[in-house]
Amino acid sequence: MIYIDKYEKALEYCTACPKLCHFACPASHAAAREAVTPWGKMSILNLLRKGRLELTFENAEPIHNCLACGLCTVFCEHHIDVGLILTEGRAWLESQGITHPGYAELKENFAARGHAARSDLDTVLRTSLKDELFNAEAEVVFIPGTRALAERPQEVVAVFRIFEILGIDFVACAPASLCSGHELWRAGLSENFKAHASAAASKLLEKRLVICADSEDLFCFDQVYPQLGYPLAERSRHISEFLLPYLENRGGLKRCDLSRVEQESSYLTRHLGRASASRRILAMIFNGEAKESGYDAAAVYPCGNEAAFAFACPENARGVADERMRQIRLAAAESIVATDAASAAALDGFKLSGETGPQTLIEILYRSLEDSDVRQP
Q: In whole angstroms, how far apart are CA 194 and each of 28, 115, 223?
């Protein structure tokens, strides 16, 4: 049972608010609709909760226009977690028989393959990596991330080549279905998410360490799974957190003089506060400070493919990516470096001067290690 009334105070605050976070919402900027602003979405949910607005999909549709990026919370004087409340709101709507038709594909993909992509990602993994890297008995497992596998499979290959260079031979690759299922949770598909989480946790709780390439997987294992009784927080790490100690001990990375914009994940920075390792690694490779773009360093702007947003609002998702690239171009940097492959994938197709597209921390680190040509004994 979803008790949306537990958020009554926050919903009333947002409904009465003079829209102080109005300017900050990437989804409402892309949609150009008042109903999609944080005020609009929270007010609609509040009216639906009270029975003052008829419970129909047409009335509830704006509630799905949310990336859960947390930018509205950054500028909220009451620090209301609008993204979380709207996630719960979607779950409540689902319990009332109101769901977004865009989530039908999400349900089908998880039912057929155990992840959000429509393609067979386990075949991608098996053709990309050696058989010995799929050791089910390994105590440390790497979760490659659905979006990385679907759109940038070279990222997974680069991760294991980095492991080889650093002498890390105890990490196994998880199957594609061993993801967090964060898309189901954000879509409000609670029963589907709980079933997936139960199956995933039964395997991951046997592991000593779970390394995540996707910050949303990390967030889900760290923040959501424990609420279901699966204590994965202490054993979950972002790939940058896992690699940093090895890189600090090794030294000798080949450095780069290109100016850069760092496209960080709002989940790694704002929701988890765990971006220090990725920033430290990039500082070991690049000369000079990163150029800022968008609002400020504390207000990381999303790329459009966060949460389940692209399933419900694909056109708006593209609009968010367009706006992010507009900001990046204003920074006049020579390169874009994304913390996660998912962020880079959202910006693929965009170019800076010199036809430079987005690159990931892993891609840049792998090249730096290869060029330095010093392997661990």
A: 30, 14, 14
The amino acid present at 50, given as its one-letter code, is K
Q: Report pLDDT digits (tens) over 288-307.
A: 888 876 555 567 899 998 98
CB 82 within 8 A of CB 38: yes
Query: CA-to-CA distance for 117 and 149, rounded, in angstroms?
Result: 9
Each residue's pLDDT tens digit, 359-377: 999 999 999 999 885 554 4
Pick the closest to residue 286 from 278, 294, 298 (CA basis). 278
% of the chain exceeding 70 in pLDDT: 95
Mean predicted lDDT score pLDDT of the chain: 92
Other C-beta atoms within 10 Å of 370: how many? 14
Q: How much is the average pLDDT of 17-37? A: 92
User: What is the reported pTM?
Assistant: 0.94
Q: State residue 18's pLDDT score.
A: 86
Distance CA 331, CA 29 (A): 20
What is the SS3 assignment for the chain?
CCCHHHHHHHHHHHHHCCCCCHHHCHHHHHHCCHHHCHHHHHHHHHHHHHCCCCCCHHHHHHHHCCCCCCHHHHCCCCCCCHHHHHHHHHHHHHHCCCCCCCHHHHHHHHHHHCCCCCCCHHHHHHHHCCHHHCCCCCCEEEECCHHHHHHCCHHHHHHHHHHHHCCCCCEEECCCCCCCCHHHHHHCCHHHHHHHHHHHHHHHCCCCEEEECCHHHHHHHHHHHHHHCCCCHHHEEEHHHHHHHHHHHHCCCCCECCCEEEECCHHHHHHCCCCHHHHHHHHHHECCCCCCCCCCCCCCCCCCCCCCHHHHCHHHHHHHHHHHHHHHHHCCCCEEEECCHHHHHHHCCCCCCCCCCEEEHHHHHHHHHHHHCCCCC
> What are 77-88's pLDDT values in tens digits?
999 999 999 999
- 16: tokens are 């009465």
Nearest to 93 by CA among 85, 329, 226, 149: 85
| pLDDT (0 to 100) of residue 294 | 56
Both tokens of 32, joined, read: 């150009």
Burial of 353 (0-12, 13-18, 19+ CB in 10 A): exposed
